[in-house]
Amino acid sequence: MKAATVQSTTGEGEAQSWQATSLSGKKLKLKAKEVWLRFEKPDAQGLMDEASALSNEIDLQLLWDCAPEGEFAFTDIASEYFGGQASAAQQAALAIALQSAPVYFRRKQRGRFMRAPKEQLDAGIAALDRKQREQEQQGQWQAELVAGRFPESFISQAKQLLFNPDKNTLAYKAFLAACNETGESPPQLMMRCGALESPLAYHQGMFLKANFPNGAGHHADAMIADAVYDAAIAALPTAEVQAFSIDDAATTEIDDALSVTPLLEGGHRIGVHISAPGLVISKDDSLDQVARARMSTVYMPGDKITMLPDAVIAQFSLDAGSARPAVSIYVDVDAQGDLIDQSVQTRIELVPIAANLRLEHLEESVNQFADPEYVAKDNAFAFQNELLVLWRAAQKLHAKRQEQREKNGLRVEQLGVIDPNALQRDFQFQISQTNGVERVDIQARSRGSVLDTIVAEWMIYCNSTWGQWLADQGLPALFRTQKGWGPQRTRMQTTSAPHEGLGLEYYAWCTSPLRRYSDLVNQWQLIALAKHGVTAKMVAPFQPRDASLMGIAADFETCYQSYAEYQDRMEKYWCLRWLAQEPLPRTVYARHLKEGMSRIEDIPLHLPIPELALQPRMTRAEIAILETDLLQLSASVRVHQIEKSEPVPTESNAPETEQSAVDAAPLDDTPIS
């Protein structure tokens, strides 16, 4: 209700109208049907003040009892409630009470009302009581949260409140109100109340909510029966090779291995052997659905979420001391390491795995191969001769790709590390616990080692050769393509196209079927081609212009990017943890990259440093890390000194578009071991 002071009157009866001034000073034109009550005293403001106070004292239940059954005017019932001649303020108070009590009275028109039926009144009163109790409960929970106590009834739904809340629940409303009162974010409030064990749990929970809403574990029934596995490999011939894998010590999904066999006429036969889960996992079966839902293994420092169940990985991983099913590609090389292209063969077979070589044990010894004056010593280390053959041939493969890169207008990449002052790009995170306290050790690892080159070049060769074979036979697959310049440089598609960054005309991910769904899909197509030759189109799981394959390509890109972003966040988290392991402020060195974004030299942590925004690229600065925020993944920085020196290259001389071939957490186009 509003009150106004009349300034002038025009017309009569129903046509009467008034020029009036509201309490706020606004000029109004009022018609007769809009006016509920006319009065001379007190003044408008005085009446509203008195009426508002009186309305709070009105007993709505008594008023409902006094009201007639039918429709009534508020002025008529005023005398019933107040007795005698009700004053203007009392009548206005009654109007306010009737207007604000929809549970008790229904508004009709022009100040007329009707009381609610008894059944609706009882239900309405019960609802009001319930709402009152809920408000009291919400206020109690809110007060506990503000005080730093997590309500006991919230404990079972803590994760839901944080990651997947029902915004209509009383618990969420209390939680949100507490956040608004304290000015904290939801994870900050939960951390203070002890309901969130750590910032790491928050980042993990957000990722799992978005990508693994039903949990990251595999169902116990997700497995391959031994009888099914045995039947699938029973007819496979056993390769006459002694294969070995090359990985870091943390790798458990070993899906590629190499072999070198001397030829009687001179030269060697090199084999690239890829684990073959595609022999048993079929399109649309239960394990395919598991793999397709995940699309890839998720990597993060100190942990991973595998695409396939551990039991399946154990059956197909190329572990030493066993003969495992594999799709193999063989090519002969001469004494100088040049490939004899017409010798290429693809076979499905059992491959004996003689050893799982680890980078940590061999890298320093094998790097001696890069010395032009290197002379091999007999039995200096395991598989010395085989690795030397692979290295010589890998150099030829690399050189051939560089010729094509140069034609594509890209710079030629030299093998090895050229500038020792370049920023490191590969890092290994080791998470350990000492007396219940987690610590992280971050070790830089230079790109371009001999072992890196061996694995990278032979996986690239395998992916390129199989990609061309699929394309030549007209079989669709998931091809990886790249343009040297422009937006959307790298993409996944179902028809072949050049990968300019690698210097290749054909490229299809085929070498990691235990870790990437794209490789498993391509393996199905390869197996069909290897078994059926020119008739493969009739039996291959995916036919030309298959819409489902196009959908897989799109889904894989989206999922793979999400996993890559999560890996980046986790690496940033552990980098900040590494900084905070020593007392802050902590002095470190950073290099400016672009637009005020810089990178810490010793770890892969990028931070905005506005003071360096106008400095040349790769300017070096001494900075102090003042504090870190593990929830926001940020750090406050003070610049101590900016060094004036010549810019140095941003990275070691590794391929522009490729990540290390032996990185345990691949994010781009590099074949992984």
Tell me the count of domains: 4
Average of the residue pLDDT scores: 87
Largest sheet: 5 strands, mixed
* Number of beta-strand segments: 22
| Class derived from helix and strand content | alpha+beta
Q: Between the first and last Cα atoms, what is the distance in angstroms?
A: 77 Å
> Tally the helices: what do you get?
18
Rg over CA atoms: 38 Å
Residues in helix, %? 25-40%
Uncertain residue ranges: 647-673
Q: Major sheet: order of its strands?
A: 7-13-12-9-8
Q: Which term fits the overall shape?
A: elongated
What fraction strand? 15-25%
TL;DR?
The chain has 673 residues and is of the alpha+beta class. The chain has helices at 44-55, 60-66, 74-82, 88-99, 118-146, 158-163, 170-182, 186-193, 199-211, 226-233, 286-294, 310-316, 359-366, 384-407, 450-472, 517-532, 536-539, 547-580; strands at residues 4-10, 17-22, 27-31, 72-73, 105-107, 112-115, 243-247, 256-262, 268-275, 298-300, 303-305, 322-333, 339-358, 426-434, 437-445, 479-482, 490-493, 586-594, 597-600, 606-608, 620-629, 634-642.
Q: Which key terms come to mind for this protein?
A:
673 residues; alpha+beta; 4 domains; five-stranded mixed sheet; five-stranded antiparallel sheet; 18 helices; 22% strand; elongated
Question: Could you characterize what this model shows?
Answer:
The chain is of the alpha+beta class and 673 residues long. The protein folds into 4 domains: 4-119, no CATH class; 120-196, no CATH class; 226-561, no CATH class; 582-642, OB fold (Dihydrolipoamide Acetyltransferase, E2P) (Beta Barrel), CATH 2.40.50. 36% of the residues lie in helices and 22% in strands. The chain has 18 helices and 22 strands. The chain has helices at 44-55, 60-66, 74-82, 88-99, 118-146, 158-163, 170-182, 186-193, 199-211, 226-233, 286-294, 310-316, 359-366, 384-407, 450-472, 517-532, 536-539, 547-580, and strands at 4-10, 17-22, 27-31, 72-73, 105-107, 112-115, 243-247, 256-262, 268-275, 298-300, 303-305, 322-333, 339-358, 426-434, 437-445, 479-482, 490-493, 586-594, 597-600, 606-608, 620-629, 634-642. Strands 7-13-12-9-8 form a 5-stranded mixed beta sheet, with helices on both faces. A 5-stranded antiparallel beta sheet has the order 20-19-18-21-22. A hairpin with a 2-residue loop joins strand 18 (586-594) and strand 19 (597-600). Helix 3 crosses helix 4 (88-99). The longest helix is centred in the last third of the chain and has 34 residues, at 547-580. It is elongated, with a radius of gyration of 38 Å.
